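Notes to self after the call with IL:
- keep both proteins in one doc
- input above output, always
- annotate only the second one for now

Protein 1:
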Amino acid sequence: MGPSQAPVGVPTLELMGMLSYERRCAEIVNQTSLLVSALDGLDLGKQVPSTPDWTVNQLLRHLGHAHRWADEMIREKLPEIDLTRNRAQDVASYAGETAAELGPWLMEGASSLSAALQAVDPNEMIASMGGHPGPRMWSRRMANETVIHRWDVVNALGVPFEIAPEVAQDALREWTDFALPYSFLRWPAETAPLLGPGRTVHLHATDVPAELVIDLTGPRPVVREGHEKAAVALRGPVVELVLAVYRRRPVEGLEVFGDAELLDEFLAGVRF
């Protein structure tokens, strides 16, 4: 199956650029499979430019542990997220592992998580955050976590990266729904200077129907759908917008209209 294809049997009709729950569960496995297929014969000891504290080996362990953490919370139906079980940041000791070792381990974790999510009601309040149903949130978070870290790995290894536009569109919308407000809650002092009169950012995808306006004029960011004039607009293919907002690529090569300094300040200030 090519990277631009939906998994067989999964609905492809998406509403408002949001993947279905079933598609997200499938993409956790699909994106992991695409990642694993890129590893054969390559040096997993290379540093990852976009996560410079980690090698490819360590980043792969980070992703696999993230899958297993979510899987465990969903299977045990924990009422809230348990951060004490998360081993995804504790990866410094991993070194010298091969694709033959890590590939099956990654696929096992992704498949188990996908199965756990499909075995529960998506709207059940387990492993929830901010009042949102945990299964829905984790299906989306882990699908897009896998997408972004697949890019990190293949970029480090010099392997081409392709992704279905609807998957990239879902990742862009999740960034505005989750990463953006999380950043303002997590680092209030650092993000407060981004707010102020007349400060609006327009993200405009050129290949899918996705236009998002981020309004920074109030006490917290507000995201609106649609086309409207903003202080600055960033325009380009949706996958490139995703990489830009996740700070995986500079905005050079994309179209920028308006206050470029505001855009640079905004992208530098929103961390996730």
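Protein 2 (the one to annotate):
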Amino acid sequence: MSPSPLRGGVRGGGVVTSAERTGETSRGGAWDAAAAVPDPEVPCVTVADLGILRSVEIIDGVAVAKVTPTYSGCPAVLAIELAVEVALRDAGFEARVERVISPAWTTDWITPEGREKLLEYGIAPPAQSSNSIRALFGETQVDCPQCGSSETERVSEFGSTACKALYRCTACREPFDYFKCI
């Protein structure tokens, strides 16, 4: 997995006073506020876990968060942008969110922590790198997040959201979502 090429948020910590809202401390606090926003469609992961929060910078006193949608038709993109803006404002920052569409987001940007959270939530994380021809156009081996069996079958190309497919485990008989490689 390769990390997001623009994921440059500085992770700071704690409460940031107005006197400290300069430099790295301010940017770190802004990153932390934005990074904690949960994805509205998959609430077990944050926008940082998914890698869609690209960066947070302080520009002329304004926290500017750059966000990349998972795909161009994602119905949650406006909700995510508004939630990031609200989180920054609640943390005491003037805020602006910018949508960045290039380079396009890929499931390779999901952090290892995000993949683990998906699995614990019952969603099979993407199995292969998005640049794999097999991942994009072939059958992908998906292990069951409930029992770990590799004896699974795709039921539908689309699951609870367009970015997930519906699978069924033939071993434990449980249905589950698989976060598709993009």
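Annotation: Helices lie at 23-35, 47-50, 77-90, 112-121, 133-137. The radius of gyration is 18 Å.
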